[in-house]
Design goal:
By secondary structure, the chain is of the alpha/beta class. The chain is built from 9 helices and 9 strands.
Length: 301
């Protein structure tokens, strides 16, 4: 049996649907999905099987114009993920078309796309008419020589199976890189932290989510088969702590319940989740916090 395996980087603007596509490809929720932009910080990998091929997806942070250290580290991680991959897939939102951000990404592809298979996936196709779709596909292919163009809806699953088959056939011949039943190479501690951060992002509608990070401080496997998980939420200011806790602790309680339910569903067993909020004014400038998120601190310079 000839097996294939390789890395596929999903790149695009924030909110283009990369996390949704990754979760659809893998068949499990390994990358957090929210309506907020810039929620994916680390290069989360999901592993999918297609026939005799193992597809390892790198879900990169959205590419955008960086303003601060964390932004710069995220953008560096995105391009780093693309330049390390066997295949790159550029995801574009059909209804937004060629934005200034997409123009920037197309320029970047000229540098990292040489000698690499680059495919185009136009997402959210149910939002525009077919004539506009065809015109957009032509305009994009005029700008860059994509190996293939896919019309998909990551949310509804349209076109995703065809795309996965195409990707599987173009990976290099190789032994599988992960055990067949392993869906993500992120340690469970980081996946757990991401799940809690997703719930915080959904619950809080201020700018606060970009000023916080979640770390799994302790993970204890208990004799009765349950797990005790202790997490710390770091915020930059005292005022943020109050917002996070909410009136009589209602906000943090709701976040904890939602995160625990999702963790239990993901792990298939009972979980005891304990959240603590700590103020660390300079966490955005601490190398240790970046390492926890799978980012390179030096990339933020």
């Amino acid at each position: 049996m000839t097996t294939r395996a390789g890395f596929i980087a999903l790149i695009g603007e924030p909110n283009a649907g990369k996390s949704t596509l990754l979760n659809r490809m893998v068949g499990a929720k390994v990358s957090i999905v929210t309506h907020k932009v810039q929620t994916t910080r680390a290069r989360i990998r999901g592993v999918a099987m297609e026939g005799d091929s193992q597809l390892v997806f790198v879900d990169t942070p959205g590419l955008f114009r960086p303003r601060r250290r964390l932004d710069r580290a995220m953008v560096a991680a995105a391009w780093g993920g693309a330049s390390d991959a066997d295949i790159v897939v550029l995801l574009i939102e059909a209804h937004r078309g060629i934005t200034e951000g997409v123009e920037t990404i197309l320029d970047g592809l000229q540098d990292i796309g040489q000698g690499r298979t680059v495919a185009l996936a136009i997402n959210k196709i149910d939002r525009v008419k077919s004539e506009a779709l065809l015109r957009l596909a032509k305009d994009l292919n005029d700008r860059y020589p994509f190996a293939e163009t896919f019309m998909i809806s990551a949310e509804k699953g349209y076109g995703v199976d065809d795309m996965r088959k195409w990707l599987a056939a173009r990976l290099p011949e190789s032994p599988w890189l992960y055990p067949e039943d392993q869906i993500a190479d992120l340690p469970m501690r980081m996946i757990a932290a991401e799940m809690t951060r997703e719930k915080l992002t959904l619950r809080l509608h201020q700018e606060l989510p970009y000023q916080l990070t979640v770390e799994t401080e302790n993970w204890e496997e208990r004799k009765d088969g349950t797990a005790r998980i202790d997490q710390v939420i770091y915020v930059a200011r005292d005022g943020h702590k109050g917002i996070l806790l909410g009136h009589k602790g209602e906000t943090i309680k709701a976040v904890s319940q939602a995160a625990r339910a999702e963790l239990e569903d993901f792990l298939g067993r009972k979980v005891h989740l304990f959240l603590q909020v700590k103020v660390r004014p300079n966490w955005l400038d601490e190398a240790e916090r970046y390492t926890e998120m799978g980012l390179d601190f030096s990339d933020g310079n």
